[in-house]
Amino acid sequence: MKKWLIGLLAFALVLSTFSAAFAKNEKKFRLGVEVLLEDQIELIEGKRVGLITNPTGVDQDLNSIVDLLYNNPKVELTALYGPEHGVRGDAQAGAYIEKYIDEKTGLPVYSLYGQTKKPTPEMLSNVDVLLFDIQDVGARFYTYIYTMALAMEAAKENNIPIIVLDRPNPISGTKVEGPVLEDKYSSFIGEYPIPVRHGMTVGELAKLFNAEFEIGADLTVVEMEGWKRNMYYDDTPLHFVLPSPNMPTLDTTLVYTGGALIEGTNVSEGRGTTKPFELIGAPFINGADLAAELNSYKLPGVKFRAASFTPLFSKHVNKLSHGIQIHVTNRNSFKPFETGLYIVKTIHDMYPNDFQFRTPNAAGISFFDNLVGNGSIRAGIEAGKSVEEMKVEWQPGLDKFMELREQYLLY
Length: 411
Known about the structure:
The termini are far apart. α6 crosses α8. The protein is built from eleven helices and twelve strands. It folds into two domains: 204 residues, Uncharacterised protein PF07075, DUF1343 (Rossmann fold); 125 residues, Aspartate Aminotransferase, domain 1 (Alpha-Beta Complex), CATH 3.90.1150.140. The chain is 31% helix and 14% strand. By secondary structure, the protein is α/β, with parallel strands linked by helices.
């Protein structure tokens, strides 16, 4: 055998051995809940545990954290708390879930949405430690992260430690987009000055909220293992579980950060269809014209197709609506918030006599303003500003947040 061939085979053998050793040393993927139960059970062992969760609180085998804790002899699970949509995820957006008894465990379930968003001292009277385990979707206006923040406040006020079990940001942890919320526009769909697409996990947000906004809770974040910032949800071994009734697929999460801006208008965001936030339309829109105009911008990573649909509930219920479907062609280059802003501005400009922002309240703040986090974008659209001009205005605040964010990244 020729020497060069022997050398090549030897190199291949060394490379194979190195690769195998590297793979062996690389940590397997584990969620915060799995790390807690396998390695850090002492954090809750022998304590009365209150659990804030919903159907996304499962391990990789889709076992509910409720059952995992309830059936663990080392843990005394004493109370459950449900965010918007409830512990079992069976309530539509905005529906109030009253206190009730969980049929499977017999435990009390307290609502953290509607009339009582923060756990009261009575709700925590039988609890030594609070656990939070809910899948976020990576958008500032998704309410679960404020349920977490308010629970942290309650934990501080009642001298109870709180543990956040970390989960992936499903739309990756590298991309940050949109304006930072201004204090005047704070609400339950935007409590703190972070951008619309924050690029952080719930654990990272918990640490940021706790330190920067002076919550000061006795906070522990149980980190994941094997998650990398550039991962999307389907880059992990996890199965996608609906975080809420109108977030049915990973595709929904990709467009939600921009598609949800339509909620601040009289145009349907696709609620009441099988493609919420991907289908956008109204009876007064010509879908072919709108798709052609949006495609002419050549926005990165996205195409628009004319589509018609009839919502079964929400805006334009039982009325044939026309518009577009958003098709993400390259999720790494796709900019959901910018895309959503182009959609809103284009419909506004094409249909000035029909399009409307939702009516402002007594303070002059529209729901659209709460979603974007300021009043200048709505004013800019109405004044004929371009999206590029508006981006220039919010960029300094975004740059400042990016510097702050670095201090709290765990992965």
